[in-house]
Amino acid sequence: MIFHILEHAVLDSLKMLPFLFAAFLIIEAVEKFSSGFLNRALARFGKAGPVAGALLGCIPQCGFSVVASNLYAGRIITLGTLMAVFLSTSDEAILILLSYPGHTKDIVRILLIKVLIGIIAGFLIDFLVHLDRVHRSFFGKNNENREEHIHEICHGCGCHDHAGILMPALRHTLKIFVYILIFTAVLNLIIEVVGIEQLSEYLLSNSLLQPVLAAVIGLIPNCAASVMLTQLYLEGVLSFASIISGLCASAGIGIVVLFKMEHDKKLCLKILGLLLAISIAAGVICSVF
């Protein structure tokens, strides 16, 4: 069992490597050329970030949520863009639905609804972030100080002893890869021993709190959560509204990377709570309509 768990943990973590490396290359490039064209282009792109984030996030697997977490930690993207990616990410759910004939309509509905929720929530959050009162009371320090936050990511790591951007990006990538590998292995062991599938099925069956419970399960930062939610939906245990709620909260390993890379852990908890609240609201609204 241990060998099986380690094998899956390594394979799952290896899938993240290209996304991690790409994200850190962007961060290093922004830091190195912060006064040049790249920085100005990213700043302009930030206004339409929630649209791009929601569209990229709906691509199967959680690679873009990992990228978004890294970019937000460096304040290259806005909080609204980060949330749009998280809300539209479906991890393995779409791939599972594709393997079952007759569920094409479900796939289209889920993707459209999640992208729409991501775009609306993203723009609303970015609007609220720019209101000084909300900004100070909820988000704390300046969300737009990009250079300061990138410096915080790299402070004390020694990666800039090397010239260029390739070696620093590679060093950051390997550090986060080890972190993801350990976390994934431990979580897979817990799931294997405890049997979270049976526990979740018992909690969700015939419950009026399905959207709430589905969203809580969706927060589990592992593809097992989206797999479990999708299987329960296919078996008729979960309603369509509950699968929307669960998959909106299912940002995959991106949550873990956010807690690792963001120095303000209280802000991470607030973002997690915001993701949960929006996901539950999405499920409740879907159940009404």
Summarize the structure.
It contains 17 helices and no strands.
Number of domains: 1
Query: What sequence of helices (H) and strands (E) makes up the elements?
Result: HHHHHHHHHHHHHHHHH
Separation, N- and C-terminal Cα atoms: 44 Å
Uncertain stretches: 38-43
Q: What would the principal axes of the Cα set say about the shape?
A: globular
Give the tally of β-strands.
0
Radius of gyration: 19 Å
* Average of pLDDT: 77
Structural class: mainly alpha
* Percent of residues in helices: over 70%
- Strand fraction equals under 5%
Q: Report the sheet with the most strands, covering strand number, pairing sense and barrel closure.
A: none
What is the number of helices?
A: 17
Structural account:
The protein is an all-alpha fold. The protein has one domain. It has 17 helices and no strands. Helix 2 runs parallel beside helix 5 and helix 6 runs antiparallel to helix 8. It is globular.
What's the layout of helices and strands?
Layout: H1 2-14, H2 17-32, H3 37-45, H4 49-57, H5 63-73, H6 79-88, H7 93-98, H8 104-129, H9 132-139, H10 146-154, H11 166-194, H12 196-204, H13 210-218, H14 223-234, H15 240-249, H16 254-261, H17 265-288
Helix pairs in contact: 1-11, 2-5, 2-11, 4-6, 4-8, 5-6, 5-16, 6-8, 13-15, 13-17, 14-15, 15-17
Top keywords for this entry?
289 residues
